[in-house]
Amino acid sequence: MTELAAWVYDAVLGRWRAIALAETRNKVLVLAGQSTTNASIIDTLGEHCELTITKSIDQAIESLRHEHYDAIFSDSADFLPLERALVSQQANLVLNTIGEGVCIVDGEARCNWMNKKMQAWPARVHEKIRRTCQEAFELFSKQTSPLPNETPAFNRSKRYSLNIEDQQFMEMIASPVISPAGQVVQVVAVVWDATGTRRLQQKIDAIDKAGRELVRLEADALSKMNVGQRLHLLEEKIISYTRDLMHFDHFAIRLLDRKSNKLEVVIAHGLPNDSLNIEMFAEAEGHGISGYVASTGRSYICPDIERDPRYVVGLDQAKSSLTVPLRLHDKIIGILNIESRQRAAFNEDDRQFAEIFGRYVAIALNILDLMVVERVSTSHKVTDDVCSLLAGPLNDLHIDIGALMEEFIGHDELRGKLQQILDNVQVMRKTMRQAADGPSNIIGARDVVGEIDPLLAGSQVLVADDDPNMRQTIKDVLRKFGVVATITTNGTEAMAALDRHGFDLIISDIRMPDKSGYDIFAASRRMQPTPPVILMTGFGYDPNHSIMRASQEGLHAVLYKPFKVELLMLEVRKAMQIRKARVAAQVQAISGQPDGR
């Protein structure tokens, strides 16, 4: 018995005697080889262990592939070859287990070996990899040969991006196998499928490009449009990008009203009106997923709405939803809610896409607000500056004209002309005061002659505006065309009037102390037949995005103060034609007879 075998014998017998006391039998692989000196040892081991006896290294390796053994017993002469074979076997096991494809390619683009992952890929992928390895082989071989006694200066690896047909992308790292003589003899390639990662990056890049276009468009092109055109274009862009790029067909954007903490719908697509009319506030509990997201600032994937107590009714036959916050710097300004008729329709990638896109939506909406605020501030500053500059000269002119009129007593013709100048000075002062108060006038209202209009005569119109000059001017203009106008001083009065009487048309300011123009518009939607609504705003100011929200639901028109009387009457006539058509359609539906029968 050799010294090593004796040592193994003593160690093994000591271990299995202890095991025998525990009434267990361990499995031992025995490589008997050609030696006969180990027979007595094998017999002794057999008394305590379950033996598997093999005659060759190949048989031993094959047994190791299929069975687990607690120990291996072999002659010392067989130990080193067996160890090397086991290492090689373990290396093959590792290379066949990893998620990347591995292959060895020579300078003729022949693949000498590949692991199971590589073998599973189709022939077109193998061809692309082999040709790329050949290219890498030539590149490594052309590098400067080392001088005597120097380490070869070969690059140890080079990375390639492979574009396979059918939109499949591979990433590959090629490394040279260098002979002792310093020559490149083969190339080892590690390859993995990067299609998912590449498509994810392409989607992120596309969203980023769309978002930058959205913001750039708001900042540049929209500066030449009025507010209505800006809102309409912004709405179109957001809906288009959300559908075509994000592939979301049912969604709503709600913005947070800081005063009331209410989430107001400003843009919606593919969702029923009933779900949009549900009041939601930015609170973690009791106001649905949207309220939770707006309150916490955390995105929310709902894979199954039937099992989520936070879900509030939305899309018909909805099965899942995704809601992300709209962030502007460190503030939550609203939420983007997407719904689907499929269960578990949204994953983490969708959440990431929606969050990225939501940031751009928030920036675009904020830029729109800033443009309006800047316009308001600029207009007021210009008006104040002009009024300050003209106040002194107008006062001097008024004093001088008064002195001249005293001096030329008895010159009636001259005094008449001076009085006309004095009257014009008073008009200028009045106009300046109105300008300082903001756009609260209708251009050309004083010059309206008016006559009874058959289309408008007897029509009942509700006018709501907290500016006394504006509401009275509108009433006076409409009266000249035969319209019966009821004026209210605020939103609460207007909504009370709607509860008491039916109106053919509603004209309302957007910004009032208690209720917004959208509140009045929403109240009018409950009336049958629904009267057309015209909203008014100064400088395009729309703090709660009433215009965008109401436009989604059938707003007739928006007038931007100051506006011309001709524009007012044009929109009033259009609205009354719509009203008469609605009434006729309702009568026809009730009677079941076509008009005129």
Features:
49% helix, 21 strands, disordered N terminus, 597 residues, D-Maltodextrin-Binding Protein, domain 2, Beta-Lactamase, six-stranded antiparallel β-sheet, 5 domains, five-stranded antiparallel β-sheet, alpha/beta
What does it look like?
By secondary structure, the protein is an alpha/beta fold. The chain has 5 domains: 95 residues, 3-Layer(aba) Sandwich (D-Maltodextrin-Binding Protein, domain 2), CATH 3.40.190; 93 residues, PAS domain (Beta-Lactamase), CATH 3.30.450.20; 167 residues, GAF domain (Beta-Lactamase); 63 residues; 150 residues, 3-Layer(aba) Sandwich (Rossmann fold), CATH 3.40.50. 49% of the residues lie in helices and 20% in strands. The protein is built from 17 helices and 21 strands. The chain has a 6-stranded antiparallel β-sheet with strand order 11-10-9-14-13-12, with helices on both faces. The N terminus is likely disordered.
What is the CATH domain class of the largest domain? Alpha Beta
Rg estimate, integer Å? 43 Å
Low-pLDDT residue intervals, each spanning 5 or more residues = 1-9, 19-23, 370-378
**How helical, in percent, are the residues?**
40-55%
Strand content: 15-25%
Oligomer state equals: single chain
| CATH architecture label of the largest domain | 2-Layer Sandwich
Distance between the termini: 122 Å
In CATH terms, what is the fold-level topology of the largest domain? Beta-Lactamase
Number of strands: 21
**What is the strand arrangement across the widest sheet?**
11-10-9-14-13-12
Count of the separate structural domains: 5
CATH superfamily of the largest domain: GAF domain
Mean pLDDT: 79
Helical segment tally?
17
